[in-house]
Amino acid sequence: MKRWWLALGAPLLALLLGGGALWLINFNDGVDIADTRAPAGDTADRIERGAYLARTGNCLACHTARGGAPGAGGLALATPYGTLYTSNLTPDDEAGIGRWSAAAFWRALHHGRSADGRLLYPAFPYTHTTLLTRADADALFSYFRSLPASPLPVPEHELRWPYSTQLALAVWRALYFRPGGFAPDPAQDAAWNRGAYLVRGVAHCSACHASRDRWGGADWRDLSGGLMAAQGWYAPSLLDAREAGLAQWPTAEIVRLLKTGKLYQDRCASCHGEQGEGQPGAYPPLASNRAVTLARTENLLQTLLYGGFGPATAGHPRPYGMPPFTQLLSDAEIAAVLSHIRASWGNQAPEVSPLDVHTMRAALAQTLPR
Predict the structure, then answer these.
(1) 119 and 57 in contact (C-beta within 8 Å)?
(2) According to DSSP H, which parts of the chain are helical?
(3) Phi/psi of residue 157, nearest 5 degrees
(4) Quick one: what percent of the chain has pLDDT higher than 90?
(5) Under CATH, to which class is 251-310+317-365 assigned?
(6) What percent of the chain stands above pLDDT 70?
(7) CB 207, CB 127: distance < 8 Å
(8) The whole model's pTM is what?
(9) Which tens digit of pLDDT belongs to each residue from 97-140?
(10) Is 235 helix (H, G, I), strand (E, B) or coil?
(11) Where are the domains of the chain?
């Protein structure tokens, strides 16, 4: 009898110890989320800081579904384990974060837990946002609270078992995630450390540009490139000059690439302006242009692919034209420049995917004479 109890007790003890360890790792964060909603008021400066951080992290690109309100979520993200849907970040009380406190938002970014205590899936890159300061987390919270509230409910995730369970997620986090903070390197200057904070934390570059193992884990400081599983894209190395490495570029060129997009600079800025301001009487502005931010992108794609002329009027009997780029730019390049235009200079519209461009090309090809 004693041996039977020992044989049974050892696995039970190991199970209890393992469960306790998982609980401590995943749930013992000590954050009190029951404090006041706003961090001493949503000031204009804090909202502007949050808007800057959101642009740097490209938050709205993931948290805006095609044709949806900015930040309202619902965008489908394909993963090797099923489909996830991004959350609603607008201040709606039911569908969004309207009832969240600043502390709950901080816990989501820093510890990867929702306001209701659930562990969040790492498609939301808390593996990186854990490095953000509390002040920057509060700024992001204030910015999202400033967006128009959207009651859009987010679809349920469609993950296969056991990946849909909190237990599987707790094990993954035990292997690949530890809450932390950004520690400046004393051997580097302030500009380097600010860049490292943005790259590793806010912009979460290695979420795409790191090589992942079969369980989706990675060295979160790796930028050597990797295949984006279930997406069909390869994120090139940001270190290798033969791929997308920038180390040998002049600083001014890197700044121009990040601020305006090099494709836009090379192909569009001479007519439409460095800041999308256009040229009166000749080329239309792209900033604050409703035609640019329409939910339907057919007109933009048609224009960029095949060019054209505006209508002739008494004031402009010979209007300036738009050249075609269908033979000059690939699907990915056209998608990149349109996504840049739709998210720059105050524009807030969802990105355009290479699949959108390919589909448009294929559809129009069917209408051409044979």
Answers:
(1) no
(2) 2-27, 44-57, 59-62, 102-111, 126-129, 134-146, 166-176, 190-197, 206-209, 251-260, 262-267, 269-272, 290-293, 298-306, 331-342, 354-365
(3) -60, 150
(4) 40
(5) mainly alpha
(6) 81
(7) yes
(8) 0.70
(9) 999 999 999 999 999 999 998 999 999 999 999 999 999 999 99
(10) strand
(11) 44-176, 251-310+317-365
